[in-house]
Each structure stands twice: as structure tokens, then as C-alpha cells.
From TrEMBL:
InterPro entries linked to this entry: DUF4817, RNaseH_sf
Every DUF4817 domain range: 17-59
Molecular function in Gene Ontology: nucleic acid binding
Record's signal peptide: none
Name under which the protein is recorded: DUF4817 domain-containing protein
Superkingdom of the source species: Eukaryota
Length: 290
């Protein structure tokens, strides 16, 4: 209840009920309403906020003229400990620090922000070989030049990719970050060629999504050829540029023959009219949007 003030009796009862509820703010709201049906009912945030203020300041409310003085007394030691933990483990969570030091989450954020520290997310990048850079530049330059000649070119390129899924090796990059004053451009190299339980192929052409197709876990030229013949929509083949990477199953002679017949000079891959650079999933929209 932002802006509302409670009497000393109400504050005492609020904290007492919060204790009876064993620190469960939602249960405390229900218990308070049962005990005091004729009073204003504090919301769950009020219970936790009052308890936190008592823990940190020894009072439910801190007068404005005392706020800076109290903060100056407690911040140096607290700030030193917070910064020490960040220096030791830059990827640590502010909530972990808050819990370990028994201070509010916002107090930790305030100290870090005052030191001009920001949380930067870790970036995933493909591990490259020294020989990979020139083909990547050549492909990107060709693609940009083609888009200048034909502004609608991106709407006729079918980008495809296969991925194998399992319940392992899932990383939540939203919650992974590094606290520092300058972006360190932290990266994690991903492992490849692992065996998973489910193999899925999907694609993007313009603003359309090619419905996912389940492929055999062990992909070879025969079953990939069946995919090209049976699962690729006929209505998009006439003016389509087909892209797939240089996986061994994609490079089989019979596969390339079908591609030359179906997409003459209009397929992008190893052996195609425009070679797809090896180890370049970052050039494929499927890597970003699927």
C-alpha cells in the first residue's frame, strides 16, 4: 500500500502476524484479515517490507532526515562486502548476495549501481577455425549485394536447419550475466555433434514458417532425400532459394542431383552455386528465431 501509514499498534500486529505465518506474506494477509476484519488489510508487500525495515533499520519507518545518516553508517561495511563478492564471482546473483548478507535485494542493486556496475548477459558464439573467416565474409558480401539488386530476395530464401533435442544441456542465458563497469563480451562456446533423442528440421522463408518435420535420429542421405521430395512444400519451390548447411547427409551425390534439378543455381550449401560457410549458424535466421 504505497504512501499509506499504519499506527504503531497496527505495525506491531502486522509484524506479529507475519511471524505467526512463518514469513509467508500471502498467508499473513489471510491471517490478518481473520484476526482484524474491521481494519485496513495490508497487502503481502507491506508485510515483507515492514519486516525488512525492522531487520535493516530497527524501525518500521525511517524519517527522511535520518535516512542518509543511517545509510552512511551501515553502507561502508555492506558495500565493501557486496563489491568483494562481485569481484570474486562476477557472475553471482544479486539475490544470492541479498540472501547471504540478509539485506534487501534493492540494497544490493543500489550499491552496484552507485559503483556504475551493470549486468551484461553472456553471449553464445560458434567456435571457428582460422580458415572459416574468409568464406563467411564472402557469403555475407554476396548476400548483401544480392539484396541490393533484389530488395525482395530475403523473402524467397528458405533457411533450414536441423536440431536434436534432449532434456540436458539447456542453459538459461536470461539469468546469466557478468557484473562489471565495461561490457566484457563474455562468451560460452557450445558443444556440437552430440547424440540426442529427437531430430527436428524446420525452416523460415520470408514471414512464413516451414512446419517442423521430425527426422530420424541418425540422418543419412536416403532419409534426407525423402524429406526433400516428400516434405518440402510444392507451392514455394518455383522461385525458391534453398539453404541448408554442409552436413554429410546434405552433401550426398543423389541429394545434390535433386537440388540441381529442383533449384537450378538456387541452392546455398556445400557444393551449391553459393557455398554455405562452415560453422556459421549465426548467419542462419533459424538460429535466432526457432
Amino acid at each position: 500500500m504505497p504512501g499509506e501509514r499504519f499506527s504503531s499498534v497496527e505495525l506491531t500486529d502486522i509484524h506479529f502476524i507475519y511471524g505467526l505465518a512463518d514469513g509467508n506474506a500471502y498467508a499473513a494477509v489471510r491471517l490478518y484479515q481473520e484476526r482484524f476484519p474491521d481494519r485496513r488489510i495490508p497487502d503481502s508487500h507491506t508485510f515483507t517490507r515492514i519486516h525488512q525495515r525492522l531487520r535493516e533499520n530497527g524501525a518500521c519507518y525511517v524519517a527522511n532526515h535520518d535516512a542518509e545518516r543511517n545509510r552512511d553508517v551501515r553502507v561502508p561495511v555492506l558495500e565493501e562486502e557486496i563489491l568483494h563478492r562481485i569481484e570474486e564471482t562476477p557472475s553471482t546473483s544479486t539475490r544470492v548476495i541479498s540472501r547471504d548478507l540478509q539485506v534487501s535485494h534493492m540494497a544490493v542493486w543500489r550499491v552496484l549501481r552507485e559503483q556504475l556496475l551493470s549486468p551484461y548477459h553472456i553471449q553464445r558464439v560458434q567456435a571457428l577455425l582460422p580458415t572459416d573467416f574468409e568464406p563467411r565474409i564472402r557469403f555475407c558480401q554476396w548476400f548483401l549485394d544480392t539484396c541490393i539488386e533484389n530488395p525482395e530476395f530475403t523473402s524467397v530464401v528458405l533457411f533450414t536447419d536441423e536440431a536434436k533435442f534432449s532434456r540436458e544441456a539447456i542453459t538459461n542465458f536470461h539469468n546469466n550475466h557478468i557484473w562489471t563497469d565495461v561490457n566484457p563480451h563474455a562468451i560460452i562456446e557450445r558443444r556440437h555433434q552430440q547424440t540426442f533423442s529427437l531430430n527436428v528440421c524446420a525452416g523460415i522463408i520470408g514471414d512464413r514458417l516451414l512446419s517442423p518435420v521430425f527426422l530420424p535420429n541418425i540422418l543419412n542421405g536416403d532419409n534426407y532425400l525423402n524429406f526433400l521430395r516428400d516434405d518440402l512444400p510444392l507451392d514455394i519451390r518455383q522461385h525458391l532459394y534453398f539453404m541448408h548447411d554442409g552436413a554429410p547427409a546434405h552433401y550426398r551425390v543423389t541429394v545434390r542431383e535433386v537440388l540441381n534439378e529442383t533449384f537450378p543455381n538456387r541452392w546455398i550449401s556445400r557444393g551449391g552455386s553459393m557455398p554455405w560457410p562452415a560453422r556459421s549458424p549465426d548467419c542462419n535466421p533459424c538460429d535466432f528465431y526457432l
